[in-house]
Amino acid sequence: MRQRQKKSTPRLPTRYLVTAALLEMASAPIAATVARADSGTTGYGGPGNVLNPTGQIMNRARDDDGLSVIDDVTRTPTGLMYPVPYHTPEMTQSQSNPDWWTLGWFEAGIMGTFGQDSRSASLNRYGDWKNGFTVTSLGFEAEDRKTALHVSAFGQNVGRTDQYFQVDVGRYGVYDLQAYFDSIPHTFSTVAKSLWDGAGTGNLTLRGGLTPGASTPAQVNAVAAAVGPSTLRILREKAGSSLTYTADEHTELFLKISDERRNGTQPISATFGIPFQNGATQLIQPIHYQTVDVTGGVRYREERFQANLAYAGSFFRNDILDLTWQNPGLTSNTAPGAYIPQMGRLSLAPNNDYHTVKGDLAMQLSPSSRFTASLSYSLMRQDDALQAPTTGSAVITSGADTINLSQWNSASALSQPTANAAINILNAVAQYHYTVNPDLGLTLEVRDRDESNRTNYVAFNPQTGQYGYIAIDGGLAPFVPTLSGVYQVKTPGSLVQIRNMPFANNNLQVTAKAAYRLDTHWKLDLSYENDTIDHTVREITDAHDNIARAQLSTTGYEWGTARLSYEFARRIGSDYQSNPYTPYYSAALPGYIPATPSGDPAFALADLRKFDIANRTEHVLRGQANYILSPRSDLQLTGGLKVDDYDAAYGLRSTHAFDITTAYTYQMSAATTLTGYFTYQNQDRGVANIAATGAGTSGSAGAAGYPLANAWTETVGSDNYTAGLNAHHSWGVVSVNADYTFTRASTALDYAYAGTGAFFGVLSPAQAGSRFPAITYDSHAVQTDVRWQMSEALSYRLYYRFNYERLVDFHYTGLAAGAINNNTYLGVIPENYTVQTIGLLVQYVF
Which stretch is the leader sequence (predicted)? Predict the structure, then answer.
């Protein structure tokens, strides 16, 4: 019995977010190695970790016999060669009960990782590389070939933080019961230094030597220097089970339940002001999450009719709903008697529930027509207790007014005790397919999504009769009185948000498709889609996205297959309103006094366009070709170009993305194979804006509030290169498998400005320059396995891995734990590494 494994796909770089100081947020593609297990996946993602990225149940050598006894080279329907399968041992027939067949295995040994910074958070982000004895894999399978009963169990990396286990019991064609446990770590930092005691709890108290609200930078640095490094890490553990039961030939029942726990710590940021005022600070956020997912339903099928009815629920609970910390007190507000908050509080992720009921059906109306439909209704609810606006009790000044925080530091200052947040979503899909003849098929599809946001909160303090909510514990009031968060009736320009904004979208999508076979080898696919979106509380009320696609593909030629597609999309929205939010601010209240007789300063630059709703023209070109170069070699070429042009003078103006991948496979025989690939990705994006002055009431570009002298532009360009090579060779009982992966990523951030007002005049042109230093990422990974198959039951495996990773990012230049410009940091920086891992493992099969 042989088990065929799917070919692994090279992983592309993930994305790091890069903040361009005083300009705009931009993204930098940076490569990273990730484990297969996906912590964001509902249900069980299957086996897999850093030692087992392909998800094999047991580690075995390649099968020199290939997939066929006729030819050791076999191909997929598209012409590509199948990878050489892994050799799975035959099951053994029981002597005492011949109906039962079994297979068991056990692999264990010694592994060690050493080199420069083997504790690096980057290395250990999703894996456990600790030294010592390890059980890499164990398990068994058994089946009764008379009654179709079966049972199996397996586990990997036993006792480590990236371990997993699975047990499966059932009867083929009748029922199947599965239970699993999956664990994966996520390490953020191993060098963090905290100024607080109580990490991992909801209450952080300053260490000795620091005074809440009255510490100095020198004291902060002294404490940071004396504190040892700590690890910030979350451990995600997920257990679950699933049951499917075939009641009869038409009906199947299914039920899935999972319980996921996340425990640990991670960095989080907080502040009592804005840049150059009260200091920002990095804190340690406690993570104590639990998510329970439940899915159940029934499937019904007949020859021409199928239907499903299912319920899915997700229930999130957070043991720590807020984080309170003592403020070191670093601030630029040094006036005698100035208010400096001694305590701060952040609300953390709230408890919430999700429910959805979904029904599907599919009907074969005639030999040439098919109809499918789906209807679902979802409820999202969050009703946690609301936090008081502040923790302080002092009397603070806000311009000519005063605010007594003791009237705002309890739940009595809230207009309602709980959030009472609710969103309802209705989704409906209908599709009709008609086969005109063997060469032509037509499809019409309609999708409707209606979202209703029923959350309604008014920030009103019954104790004072005032609207608003204390902004960041009163820290802003001394600097910008209008940003205190409290509406002052008699103060002109006292503009504060007093209501939540019930964002929601309704979407109607109509798609028509045609598939026409031109001849034996060529096929043409055409489609047109109209997407109508109605926005609630957005700058435009509605938009239409028209998308046309064409694809030409060919199959059946001796040389291979090819596919070329082109897509054109044009989104046009209604008139753009730069400030649709007035109903949710104090300006909507009776008696509101504008800042000037002519009105308030403009809310935003009128010519600025938010990219997700801006008019947009998009071109997407994709191509793929699979070439059979010889009976034993393949060449794949894949590439694409995407160009987005936004009708915007300011905001995101354009994006360009290009990628090309080539892969070559050569199978000299089932015993000797070679695979290589190379990928290049390029992305560019351009952004423009004007720094506001706060003068005047016009939001037009060139007005007093947005003078052209304050205009700036930014261009972000990234280039990513990834190359990989895999070689396998077998000398009978001895085999070697080697992998090498190289990744190089470089991101450039260039900018230009009309004048120093673009960055508020805090830098001279010589200081500002025209670009930031390039952000670069380099990674090398080599992994080899040398196996000696001493017998069918016993094998030895020598494992070697080399890893190198280096990230150079100007954001971290000079960053260290302690105080910098009245800001406090944990010292979380990229932890580059050069390490080697060696393991000697023994596997026994029985």
Answer: 1-31
Cα 462 from chain centre: 41
Residue 337 has a pLDDT of 73
CB 465 within 8 Å of CB 487: no
Can you give the pLDDT at residue 2?
33
Q: Give the model confidence (pLDDT) of 377-425 as tens digits.
A: 999 999 999 999 999 998 988 778 889 999 999 999 999 999 999 999 9
The dihedral of CA 326, 329, 330, 333: what is its sign?
positive
Other Cβ atoms within 10 Å of 169 Cβ, number: 15
Residues 349/289, Cβ–Cβ less than 8 Å = yes
Q: Tell me the Ramachandran region of residue 22: left when phi exceeds 0, alpha when psi lies from -120 to 50, beta otherwise.
A: left
pLDDT > 50? residue 31: no
Task: For residue 331, give the nearest of 474, 204, 199 by alpha carbon.
Answer: 474
Q: β-strand 794-808 against 440-453: which pairing, if any?
A: unpaired
pLDDT over 70 at 41, yes or no = no
pLDDT at 14: 30
Helix (H) or strand (E) holding 768: helix 765-768
What's 463's DSSP letter? T
Q: What does the alpha-carbon distance between residue 724 and residue 675 come to, in Å, rounded to a whole number?
A: 8
Amino acid at 198: G
The CB-based long-range contact list for 207-216 (8 Å cut-off, 24+ gap) reads 210/326, 210/328, 211/329, 212/326, 212/327, 212/328, 212/329, 212/342, 212/343, 213/327, 213/328, 213/329, 213/340, 213/341, 213/342, 214/329, 214/340, 215/328, 215/329, 215/330, 216/330
**Amino acid at site 317:** R
| Residue 12 reports pLDDT greater than 60 | no
Question: What are residue 56's DSSP bridge partners?
Answer: none
| Spans of all domains in the chain | 193-331
Who's near 451: CB < 8 A, 6+ residues apart?
A: 423, 424, 425, 504, 505, 506
For 82-98, the three-class secondary structure string (H helix, E strand, C coil) is CCCCECCCCCEECCCCC
Q: Residue 516 CB: number of other CB atoms within 10 A?
A: 15
Q: Which helix (H) or strand (E) holds 227?
A: none
SS3 55: coil
Closest CA relative to residue 361, chosen from 374, 352, 346, 370: 374
Distance CA 84, CA 90 (A): 18
The continuous run of DSSP H or E covering 318 comes out as strand 305-318
**pLDDT score of 32:** 31
Structure confidence at residue 44 (pLDDT) = 56
